[in-house]
Design a protein that fits this description.
Largest sheet: 6 strands, mixed
Helix content: 25-40%
Shape: globular
Number of helices: 19
Strand order of the largest sheet: 5-6-7-8-9-20
Radius of gyration: 25 Å
């Protein structure tokens, strides 16, 4: 599985160059390529990869006007180490209201439309009438276009001219976070994922304590839904940081947009959870830093983490409670707390693996319950969901992806194949920047094939399991499959490296060290039938060949020479380990 990426959009809208969205680095006072045109800076929501450059210094004579929701401003300022420049730059910000069209200057209007990604988040419609010809641009921001969201957008009076075709949509900037995956997968409905989680929680003994590892804005929906399911039988404990931003948002009076927003982002219910503590309760849930929640011993606390790229087979056979006869080996780690370490076999796409997990034993049911729970939840759309969103509009003239890379381009991700847009500005620009996309990959219908990991479709077959992280062990919890922790420097380095720039320094060394440790943790947690060493031949990744190959080095990684096709611009490298690619100068 490829690594998830954050926003790569540079913020510039060529059709309306005096407006920037979610990236303001080009107008810094010390920028070598300063943008002297932009006057308005729009922030779609409070995730840190969507206000790049906000901490910079701007020339007083050319300081831009920032536009965002009041909720988004409060959430940004709630970050513990907020740079002073951010607070200064947002001092005179203009607050947007949902579904209310406002004028930036005569002939230039904008409208914020709720997209339910997190509190205060919005799509942004910009309409420019100044040149005599109307130009309309829709920026989706991050969004999960589930059925309820699609229905809400379809009934929007603001977007109805574009939905029913009376006006063209000149440019659509679309959330394409899904593009980093090697497969276009269907993602389980968020509500179903939450109810599966609740069903699993019920199997734990009364008095069990749980901790949510996901605390980024947008996961409050999970907390509230879990509280509603268990009604008055649970207590919630929040860290100081989480409590502070909940209180700030509650007081902002800017979060109630419509009925769907009330259902998804129920801040009033979250706010009421903070002070309520019951003497008698079945379960306790902790959110935030463990020390700030008042926990002295976390050894028996059940951690809960979201996942996306997980098959039904993996979920059912790896992450659910087990009976004693389902283990190959059991060892008691703590007799008083009934903590056990268990090993069991898992058939991962025809390759047997001996997995190693920790459990607590329930004295009532005698079941072994996992210390680490995973549940399916996504804040970003799948390919099919994004396609359904695009189909809402009758006349979309151009689409530009908000998340893309050299790697996704080489795998065949382009607007012509995925959305039917001929000669899109992205395809033309990427052809110039990255080179021609490999024709074999570009014309491959498998790039557009949608695989259902959870349905009854024939696409849900065994080969979808055969990937490096298909079995996500408990040691994987330190990194997020969809970019919870945004590493701006790492993203920039990755992009530059893929463009052939040789980079050195502390950041790159740290990045390589983290990759090695991640691989080591995986290998320590998986015992493979046969040789003890990890065999990269099991995994496939396609990369562009720009130069000669050291065949001896390739053989040292158990890659066969016949796998290399000199007459093509593609190498089938049977590995997902980026260290190997770095060593042979591919990255």
């Amino acid at each position: 599985m490829s690594k998830a990426t954050s926003l790569t959009f540079n913020g510039i809208i060529p059709l309306i160059p005096d407006v920037l969205i979610d990236n303001f680095e080009t107008i810094h006072a010390n920028s070598t390529s300063r943008n002297n045109i932009a006057k308005y800076c729009i922030i779609s929501h409070a995730h840190c990869d969507h206000y790049k450059g906000l901490s910079g210094k701007f020339l007083k004579s050319k300081a831009p006007k920032f536009i965002l929701t009041k909720t988004t401003k409060h959430l940004i300022l709630c970050h513990t180490n907020t740079p002073t420049n951010i607070e200064k730059n947002l001092t005179n910000a203009e607050f947007a209201e949902m579904n209310v069209t406002k004028e930036l200057e005569p002939g230039l209007n904008y409208t914020f439309i709720p997209n339910y990604h997190c509190l205060g988040s919005a799509m942004v419609l910009i309409k420019d009438l100044r040149g005599g010809k109307a130009l309309s641009v829709l920026y989706t921001g991050d969004a999960r276009f589930e059925y309820g969201v699609i229905y809400s957008i379809r009934t929007s009076t603001i977007l109805s001219p574009y939905i029913f075709g009376s006006e063209p949509l000149n440019m659509l900037y679309l959330d394409t976070t899904f593009s980093y995956r090697n497969r276009n997968i269907e993602i389980l409905d968020n509500l179903e994922g939450i109810y599966r989680l609740a069903s699993l929680i019920r199997q734990y003994p009364i008095g069990t304590k749980f901790r949510f590892l996901d605390t980024i804005y947008g996961f409050e929906e999970v907390w509230v839904k879990i509280h509603d399911i268990f009604a008055s039988k649970c207590n919630f404990y929040f860290s100081k940081n989480v409590s502070r931003w909940i209180e700030k948002v509650k007081l902002s009076n800017n979060w109630l947009y419509d009925d769907l927003e009330k259902n998804v982002n129920m801040v009033d219910k979250i706010y009421n959870l903070v002070p309520v503590k019951r003497d008698k309760f079945d379960y306790a849930f902790y959110i935030g830093e463990i020390e700030e929640c008042g926990i002295s011993d976390a050894s028996s606390i059940i951690t809960i983490k979201h996942a996306i790229d997980m098959t039904k087979t993996e979920y059912m056979e790896v992450y659910l409670p087990r009976e004693i006869n389902q283990f190959e080996e059991l060892n008691c780690q703590n007799q008083e707390k009934e903590i056990w370490n268990g090993k069991f076999w898992f058939n991962n796409g025809g390759r047997k693996q001996l997995l190693n997990f920790n459990y607590i034993r329930c004295k009532q049911s005698f079941m072994f319950l996992p210390l680490h729970i995973k549940f399916i939840y996504s804040r970003h759309s799948s390919y099919s969901e994004s396609k359904n969103f695009v189909k809402l509009f009758k006349n979309v003239q151009d689409i530009y992806p908000m998340t893309e890379s050299f790697d996704t381009w080489q795998k065949g991700f382009n607007m012509k194949n995925f959305y039917g847009i001929n000669n899109s500005s992205y395809d033309l620009a990427s052809n110039d920047k990255y080179g021609s996309c490999n024709l074999e990959l570009r014309s491959d219908d498998n790039n557009l094939r949608i695989i259902d990991y959870w349905g009854s479709s024939s696409d849900r077959c065994s080969d979808v399991l055969n990937s490096f992280n298909s079995v996500s062990t408990e040691v994987d919890f330190d990194f997020d499959p969809i970019g919870q922790v945004i590493r701006g420097k790492e993203t920039q380095l990755s992009r530059k490296r893929k463009e052939g720039v040789a980079l050195k320094g502390r950041v790159l060394k740290t990045q390589r060290r983290e990759k090695r440790r991640r691989i080591e943790r995986f290998l320590n947690n998986v015992d493979t039938v046969g040789p003890a060493t990890f065999n990269p031949q099991k995994y496939v990744r396609c990369l562009r060949l720009d130069h000669g190959i050291d065949r001896e080095l390739i053989r040292s990684y158990s890659l066969e020479e016949e796998e290399i096709f000199d007459n093509k611009n593609v190498m089938k490298l049977k590995s997902n380990l980026e260290d190997i690619l770095i060593d042979i100068n591919f990255m």
